[in-house]
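Entry for the shared binder. Reason: the reviewer on the internal report wants the predicted structure included alongside the sequence.
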Amino acid sequence: MTSSSVEPKKKKPKERFKRLGVGFKKRLLKFSIVSLIGLCINLAALNFAEFILYHIHSSILEAGHKIWIFSFTYIDLISIATGIAAATLSNYILNKIWTFEKAKVERVITQFLKYAVVGASGAVLKYLLTTALKTAFLHVIPSDRWATVPASAVAFTVTVVWNYIWNEVWTFDVIEGVSESFEIPEGMDFSDVTIITPTFNEGENIGPLLEYLSKHLPGVHVIVADDGSTDGTREYVREFQKTNPKFHLLDREKEAVHGLTISVIDAIKQTETPYFVVMDCDFQHPPEKVAEITVKLREGFHFVVGERDEIPEWSFKRRLISWGASVIGKFSLWLHCSATCGDVMSGFFGGKTDFVKTIIENHPKGFRPQGYKILFELLKHSKRKKTTVGRVGYIFQQRAHGESKISKKHIIEFLKSAFP
């Protein structure tokens, strides 16, 4: 996904119909969940508006003062409109940043109007279906009240599918995240790239990573930004750099503030190559993807993000936390009119050094030093229309050794960054 005009031409609805089956089940499930959330928001907003309005104009409770329009009072109509507006807006935002997260960037007003038109057509369809089905169910269910229940359920289900299809083929234009095979060009030189890997007690992982980078990425520069390890990580890097002069240790043990974000920022400030790539040293981020990121950076992108196409063996809790953070992050970037990507929570990304240094210099107090999502923070300070973002898909692996260091403190820091 990109945040600029560096994108393929938008497909016509007819072409989208032909490839509707690609990713259909996954997006339809998300769309259905959003629709249920929207239904709850609709009812909550409707009842809340009705409660407030009746208290403000308590005199209309007297039958003689009620103003009727068809079978509704004007307060009923205002409440219904409030509920529909709240649900439409919330559904649009959730679908944009979750269901159709890989949709091409388009003017929000245009996209929202399309979404509203589809929603209106769905509302009409739901009303007609409910009325027709209710009449049919009354032949077997004599109660008007109970005949409405199955009629509404069937009508709601059909409407969700209807709305999904038209939003898929008209409102949004999804870019599928299918990674193409990539081979490192023979003799490719990496002397214009610096690998930045933040560490804290990664003694079991740092050796294999440095050996791999030295062997497979000729000419590459490496900065190990260590936050005060006590397990021999720093000692290993110091010994390794004696025979590999382009590999450096950034020892942050005595710094006043510690954290992944500030470690990466300090390393970027020391980077002298045109490009850099940030990655963990535990092999969850496949080092063989560095070459692909480098090629895209050389094509002119400001950022190239390693997006997780698959995350095998994650627990439901971890997936739920990741999903929630992703939705919050994308919503925050949308509010800030910032650049975005398909995986804003990724810790594996490359950047154009001068461009990113300028962001850091222009926002000296705009980062949460103890946070752990540096990509999100950099994107937050990047203007959407002036920033190009490329992607490289990969399969997120389990840690080779050690345990994840993500804690509740990191989650709180992220929320503070998302909504400062």
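Summary line for the report: The chain has a mean pLDDT of 83.
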